[in-house]
Amino acid sequence: xKKQIMVAMLCCMSGWSCAADKDKVEFKTDTDKASYxxxxxxxxxxxxxxxxxSLPLFIRGMQDAYxxxxxxxxxxxxxxxxxxxxxxxxxxxxxxxxxxxTENKTKGEKFLAANxxxxxxxxxxxxxxxxxxxxxxxxxxxxxxxxxxHYHGTLIDGTVFxxxxxxxxxxxxxxxGVIPGWTEALQLMKVGSKFQLVxxxxxxxxxxxxxxxxxxxxxxVFEVELLGxxx
Length: 231
Fold this sequence. Notes:
The longest helix is centred in the middle third of the chain and has 41 residues, at 75-115. The protein starts with a helix and ends with a strand. With 231 residues, the protein is of the alpha+beta class. The chain has helices at 2-19, 30-49, 55-66, 75-115, 164-167, 180-186; strands at 121-123, 129-134, 146-155, 160-163, 171-174, 194-199, 220-230. Helices cover 44% and strands 19% of the residues.
């Protein structure tokens, strides 16, 4: 961590004057380029996660530390300020997540209620909704099997979050090694089948979500094609 902070300090100080105007950026060495590149990355992170920071004061703090000047805050004061700031950001993030979870739950329930009325949609006891797009003639996998599939996953607004179809390469995984909605659906499919799945959040990633793409309480929509059962 100390190394990372020192690198960021050096990069920001070496790239500060030239980064102000893209047309005036000059690189004399590869280290200059690396300094600017790392500065860009750190800047992107600060803008995304710490957008309320004062950039001039952030730079001043690094410069004072690097040049060993008398800091405007004592070590004790700085630690107290950082602890309070971290608590504030955690609380803000939790409020944002709670709000998003509530919104997603409401939207998801409406989507599920509307989708179940569509022609051909089947609903299992768990609440999983599926529609047979193509019926295969092969074997049905068990929970202990490995399967090869193609899939295309979206949020209910159509945003694609993952797709083996788009990548052009199917995937192989254990039937019992995926989200519960998939584990259940795969055991309803014959090899060669293609289903559309609408997976309630409780059968997907629930309140925790997954990464930045899938929020809390998100209902997920998939098209899944079962290509084979792996031996």
